[in-house]
Amino acid sequence: MASISASSLSRGVASSCPRARMRLEQQFSLLRIGPAHITNKPAGSQILAQTRYRSEQIHRPEPPERQLVPASLANTSDLEMDAILEKYTSGALSESSQSGSDSEGIGGGPAAVNFQQLRGYARAVPLSPSYFTRAENFTDRFLALQDLFRRYSKLPKLPLQEMDRVAWMSKDKFQEIFHESVKNSVYQRYLSMMKTLHRINPDLKPAAVTEFLREFIVKTNFDENLPKPQTVDKFGRALGVGRRKESVARAWVVEGTGEVLVNGKSLSGAFARVHDRESATWALRSTERMDKYNVWALVDGGGTTGQAEALTLAVAKALVTHEPALKTALRKAGCITRDRRTVERKKPGHLKARKMPAWVKR
């Protein structure tokens, strides 16, 4: 239908305007074969030459060949490359200043540098192979540490008792210095390998290991961080503080005849259960000091069982202040170590922490 319309319309407008006829033929040719085949031939010969499919192949321009580094510049050092770039840049500037004076006067700015005169291919090479990783500084050090660990981890090591105490750089400090985020698990592996290398016998430890570990060892005076020892005051009292669950107990122990007051009450008045009374005085009973010391205690929070067990820890700490030699016996009796167990929280949909409601079919 396009050919019939083109021939009939072209004959109608041929006598009036040849240019209109040519424009009309071009528009109908666009409907059939597209703009790539528009010609100035008559419509009849053009339509006869057309088929259902395009017989001619579309020739696309080939992409330009990639410019490679010349062989003369392949092994050039950085200093030599800088000299070559400066030479070509200065030459391009002089030529552009001589030939482009007109454009410089029009725009008012300096002439552009023609960098196409550089025959070499220059690009910035990252200093580190880990440049494109998430944590460049940490990855470089981690790979170096793995290499040292692979080579020297089998060397003889000293026992832990003979090693000097050292403080290692924390993860937060590392992130503050290098501004990189590191996972806790990865940093713990990092510290584990460094501690293993640190245990190598100093007579056999390579200099590379010592130099690497020096960056992560923090100078610390451990004597300054020790807690202050408890002492007996001028009244002969020793204070001990203990906690259990939600309960807190403070006990003042002084040499006496074995009297115990809890919140101003006797032991039986403060704790009705026998088990709680025995727990409160277990530190004195296990060391056979029940009749040699008096105890005045304040307990708060929680229930009676928690208060009694908190009082056990408080009395034990105060007793160690009077007699440090009893610490081993009290530890064996379980009076020195704090019990950190707490009540498990209730979950949604449960009756208690773990108890579920009865299952009903319907």
UniProtKB/TrEMBL annotation:
<dbReference type="Pfam" id="PF00380">
    <property type="entry name" value="Ribosomal_S9"/>
</dbReference>
<dbReference type="GO" id="GO:0006412">
    <property type="term" value="P:translation"/>
</dbReference>
<dbReference type="InterPro" id="IPR020568">
    <property type="entry name" value="Ribosomal_Su5_D2-typ_SF"/>
</dbReference>
<dbReference type="InterPro" id="IPR020574">
    <property type="entry name" value="Ribosomal_uS9_CS"/>
</dbReference>
<dbReference type="InterPro" id="IPR014721">
    <property type="entry name" value="Ribsml_uS5_D2-typ_fold_subgr"/>
</dbReference>
<keyword id="KW-0689">Ribosomal protein</keyword>
<dbReference type="InterPro" id="IPR023035">
    <property type="entry name" value="Ribosomal_uS9_bac/plastid"/>
</dbReference>
<dbReference type="InterPro" id="IPR000754">
    <property type="entry name" value="Ribosomal_uS9"/>
</dbReference>
<dbReference type="GO" id="GO:0003735">
    <property type="term" value="F:structural constituent of ribosome"/>
</dbReference>
<protein>
    <recommendedName>
        <fullName>Small ribosomal subunit protein uS9m</fullName>
    </recommendedName>
</protein>
<dbReference type="GO" id="GO:0003723">
    <property type="term" value="F:RNA binding"/>
</dbReference>
<comment type="similarity">
    <text>Belongs to the universal ribosomal protein uS9 family.</text>
</comment>
<keyword id="KW-0687">Ribonucleoprotein</keyword>
<dbReference type="GO" id="GO:0005763">
    <property type="term" value="C:mitochondrial small ribosomal subunit"/>
</dbReference>
